[in-house]
Amino acid sequence: MSNSSSFCTQANALLRKNLTFQKRNVKTNIRLILLPLILCVLLVVLQHLIDSLLDTPDFKCGCACPNKRTTCNDSEKVCGVQYSNQNQLLTCPVPHPPEWPPLLQLPTVLCKENASCRFNMLFTADNHSFAQSVTDNMFPSAPTVDYADIMGSLSSNVLGSQSYPEDNNFLEPAFMSGLPIFYLQSQCPKNNSGFSFPYQMAGITSQQEIRCGQGINLWRNSSSDINNELYKGQTNEIASAFDFLNSNEDGFDIVVWYKSVFSRGIHSPSTTLLRIPRSVNLISNAYLQFLRGPGTKILFEFVKDMPKPETVFRIELASLLGGLFFTWVVLQLFPVILTSLVYEKQQKLRIMMKMHGLGDGPYWLISYGYFLALSVIYILCFVIFGSVLGLKFFTLNDYSIQFVFYFIYVNLQISTAFLLSSFFSNVKTATVTAYLVVFGTGLLACFLFQNFVEATSFPRGWIICMELYPGFSLYRGLYEFAQSAATISSNSGTGGMLWQDLNDSTNGMKEVLIIMLVEWIVVLFIAYYIDQVLSTGSGKSPLFFLKRFQKKPPSFEKLSIQRQGSKVLVQLEKEDVIQEREKVEQLLLEPTINHAIVCNDLKKFYPGRDGNPGKFAVGELFLAVPRGECFGMLGPNGAGKTSFISMMIGLTKPTSGAAYVEGLDIRTHMDGIYTSMGVCPQHDLLWESLTGREHLLFYGRLKNLKGSILTQAVEESLKNLNLFHGGVADKKAGKYSGGMKRRLSVAISLIGDPKVVYMDEPSTGLDPASRKCLWNVIKLAKQDRAIILTTHSMEEAEALCDRLGIFVDGSLQCVGNPKELKGRYGGTYVFTMTTSSDHEKDVENMIRRLTPNANRIYRLSGTQKFELPKKEVKIANVFQAVEVAKRNFTVFAWGLADTTLEDVFIKVAHEAEAFDTLS
Q1: What pLDDT score was predicted for residue 236?
Q2: 230 and 254 share a domain?
Q3: Which tens digits make up the pLDDT trace of 188-242?
Q4: Transmembrane ranges (predicted)?
Q5: Which of 215, 229, 315, 871 could form a disulfide with 139 if both were Cys (CB 3.0 to 4.6 A apart)?
C-alpha cells in the first residue's frame, strides 16, 4: 500500500521517539547514572574512616620509651610483645611464640566452691576387660608439681580447661579467661581449694588458679549408645569418649570423640583450633602403661603457634561488601526496564503503535537496543567511577573480563525483563515485584548462596543449578572479582583476575559466563515467542511459526459464499438489514476495490462466567463501507459498538465470520491492515512526557511521511484541530486538558492519510467550538477514506455520517442515511401540551378527535406528549384545535415537532428490547 513504511523507517521513527522521551527524562537518567558514583564515593569514605581507625595505637604493636623514661620521640621508642596489651599483642611480630601446656577440652560444669568437679569419659570396646584395664591408667592419683618451674611441670599432668580455644595460640585463652585450669586425677582431695601460681606474658604478670577435677571412666555397651548420648545433648559432664573397637595387647585401634566448640560464635569451626592432641596422647599413654607398666609414657611437653611477622590490619570494603552492594547496583536497572515495558502495555501504547503500522521487528530491535545502550552507559559509569576512586575491585581485575561479564549479564537482564513484562499488566505491581527481586536476590545471595559456594563439601552440581537464576550468576561473578582483588593470583603473582585464572577449578567465572550466555539466547527466544502469543493485540496462535506450512485461508478476492443450513430467518430482519446482507454477499462474489470495509457474518461471543449466561456482543453482522463514506454506529451502552471496533483493529479476535479491510482478512493479515489504518480510541493513549507535535511526528514517520511532507502534515493537523496556537503544540501531553487530548487523538488517527479510520466517540469532552472544528476536520477527511464513527450525540451523527447503523444487543437493527431513517421510523409528529392536571383528560380528548391512532408517550404533572401519524393529521388542523382548546381551558405551553434522530434511536432501541423480552 502507498503509505506502508519499511523496516528502517519504522525503526527510525521509534528510535527518534525514544531519544525524545529520554530527553524529557534527563533528570531521572542523571539520578540513575549517579547511583553507582554515590555508592563508590560512600565506599571510599568508609574505607578512609576504617583506615584511619586502624592506624591508631590500639591496633598497632605496643611501644615504650627505653630505660623506663616517660617521654621520648617516636623514633626512639622500642616496640614488642612485652610492651603490648592483649589487643595490641595480635599485631606484634612473634619470632619466638610462647610454649603452653597441652590441654583437654572440658565441658562447662558448675562446680561448688572447695568441692571436686566430675568430668566423665565414656568408653566401649569389643573386649570389655581389656578396655577397663587400659582406662584405669588414664588419670594419675596425685599431681606432679615443681614449684621452681610450675609452667614447665604442668605438662606432666592431665590438664583441661572449660574456656573456648581461638584461631591461634599466641595467647592461650585458658590462661586469659579468668577461669580455673583443672588437673584431672582419679580422686580429688576433700578440700579442693587448689592453688594459684604467677606467670608472665607480654610483660604482664598474672595469677592462674589450678583446681582438681575428678576423671571418671563410664562403660557403654556400644558406640551407638555413645553416639546417641552425645547427639541427644546429654554432654554436660562428658569430656571425651573412646571406642577401642577390637584392640588388644597385640594391636591398638581406637576412635576418639571430641567436643567441637568455637569462640563466642564469631569463628567458624573450620578456622578454630581444637584441643584433640591431648586426648590422643592421654589414651595412648594409658595403653603404653597397660603394656609396659606405670612409668611408661610419651611426654607431651607443650604446644605453641608458628612464628609470625608483624600483622597490619587492613579491611578492603570493596572486596568485602562488593558482592552484595554491587549486585544491588547492577540490578537497579531491572526495575527501570521492566516498568518501562509494562507502562507501554498498561497504557496500551504498544498496541497503539502497532495499530499505526509499527511492526514487531522494529519494535524489538529498537526497544532492545535502546535498553542495551542505556545499560552499557550505566555499567561504564559504574566501572569508571569505581576505577577513578581507586577501588581495587575494579582496578586489579582485567577490564576485558569485566566488560565481557557485564555485557553478557545486562543482555540477560534485558531479555528477562522482556519475558516478565508479558505477565504484568500493572506498573505498580511490576515495580514492587522488581524491587523485591532486587533486594531479595542480594540478601539471599550474600547470606545463603555464598555459604554454599564457600563450602567445599557442597555439591558443585547444585551450585550450577542455583546459578541458573540470573541474580545468583551475577553475584557469583562479582564474588569472584572481589576474591581475586583481595588475593594474589597464582598466574601473575599480583592481585586481580586474569583470563588464565578462569582455568582454575576454584574460579567460578568461566561457568558463570557460559551459563549466562546460554540463558541469554534461550530467554530472549522464549520472551519473543510469548510476546507474539500473549502481548501483541489479540495475540497469535501458539503454532504461528508454522504458518508458512499451513494452508492459507481464502482471500477476499477468491472467497465464495457457502451458506450453511443454520441460516437465520430473514423475515425477522428489517428490509434495510437484509439489503445490507445481500450487498455483502454480492461483494464477496464480485469484489470491488471501492469498498474499504466488508464484514461477513461477523460474530463475537463471550462465554458465561460465575453462573451468568454467555452473550453475543456482536451477532451476525453484515456491513459494507465504501471509501468516501463516514458510517456512524449508534446504540445504547453495551450494544456491541466497542466490541465491533476492537475486532476490526485487532484487539480481539472474532468468534466466527470474517471481515476484510482493503481486501485483507482481519483474522490473518492484521499486520498488513495496520499500515493503512488510523485509530482514535475511546480513551486517549498518549505519552505524558511527549508533546503534541512529537506525537504527530512519531506517528507520521510510522506512516512513511518524511522531510517537508511530514512537517507540513504535522503543522496542518495542529492547525486544523486548534492545537497550534498558544504553545499548545509544544506542551507535554500530560498537561493537556481532556478536550485537547481528544483532539490530539483525532489528529493522530488522521496523520499519514490512512485508508480506513475508526473513531470511538471522538468528540467526548469537547466544548461546542472545538466540536464544530472537529466536525469540519472529519468532513474533510472522509472524502477519500472510509470512516467508522461511534457516538452518543445525535447531532454529531446527523452532521457527519453519510449512513447510520443502530445497534442493540449486538445486532444491527437498521441501516440508512439520517433522512431515510427518520422517514422510515419517524412518520409521526410529536405534540406536546402543558396544562393543569385537571384538564389532562380534555387534552387527550382533543387529540383523539384529531386522530384516533395517536399514541401518548409521556405524561407528568399536566405535561403530555403524543405521537401523531403524519398521514392522518394536517398541521393546520392541529393549530385550529389548539386555538379552540385555549378558549375552553388554560394552556401553559404547547408545541408540534417533527421526528428527530433521537426519537428514531429511542424507538428502534425500545422495539428491539421488546422483541428480546418476548423471545
Answers
A1: 60
A2: yes
A3: 887 777 788 887 765 567 788 888 888 889 999 999 988 888 877 654 678 889 9
A4: 32-50, 317-343, 363-389, 401-420, 432-453, 512-530
A5: 215
> CA of 357: how far to CAs of 349, 361, 555, in Å?
13, 12, 21
- How far, in Å, CA of 344 to CA of 689, rounded? 13
Q: Which residues does 214 contact at the CB level (< 8 Å), separation at least 6?
A: 116, 117, 118, 119, 184, 185, 186, 187, 188
Domain that holds residue 125: 104-191+205-292
Amino acid identity at 403: F
Do 436 and 486 belong together in one domain?
Answer: yes
| Calpha distance 20→366 (Å, rounded) | 14
Task: Please report, as a single letter, which amino acid is at residue 847.
Answer: I
* Rounded-to-integer distance, Cα 903 and Cα 830, Å: 9
CB 892 within 8 A of CB 834: yes
DSSP state at residue 261? -
- Residue pair 157/183 in contact (Cβ under 8 Å)? The answer is yes
The grid coordinates listed for 272 are 578454630
What gap in Å lies between CA 163 and CA 476, rounded to an integer?
A: 38
DSSP designation for 157? S
Alpha-carbon dihedral of residues 421, 424, 426, 432, nearest 10 degrees?
-80
Q: Is the domain of 795 the same as that of 851?
A: no
pLDDT digits (tens, 9 = 90+) for 427-448: 999 999 999 999 998 889 888 8
Last residue of a domain, one of 768, 788, 820: 820
- Considering the domain architecture, whether residues 363 and 415 belong to the same structural domain is answered as yes
Rg (CA), the chain: 46
* Cell digits of residue 660: 476484510
pLDDT, tens digit (0-9, with 9 covering 90-100), for 510-533: 899 999 999 999 999 999 888 887
State the total domains in the chain.
4
Q: Is residue 247 part of a domain?
A: yes
- Cα 519 to Cα 414, 415, 450, 469, 669, distances in angstroms: 12, 9, 21, 9, 33
Q: Which of 874, 872, 873, 891 is nearest to 883 (CA)?
A: 891
What CATH number is attached to the domain comprising 783?
A: 3.40.50.300
| Residue 605, in any domain of the structure | yes
E strand map for 14-108 = 63-64, 78-79, 104-105
Query: Are residue 590 and residue 619 in the same domain, yes or no?
Result: yes
Q: How far apart are CA 494 and CA 504, in angstroms?
A: 16
677 and 661 in contact (C-beta within 8 Å)? Answer: yes
Sole residue written with cell 487523538: 745
Cell of 469: 537464576
CB atoms within 10 A of CB 822: 18
Asked if residue 464 belongs to a domain, the reply is: yes
Task: Specify the DSSP class assigned to residue 359.
Answer: -
Domain assignment present for residue 768? The answer is yes
Tens of pLDDT, residues 641-651: 888 888 888 88
Nearest to 687 by CA among 348, 336, 357: 348
Are 284 and 338 in a shared domain? no
Domain match, 436 and 504 both = yes
Residue 70's SS3 state is coil
Please, are residues 103 and 91 in contact by the beta-carbon 8 Å criterion? no
Q: Give residue 152's identity as a one-letter amino acid code.
A: G
3-state secondary structure of 800: helix
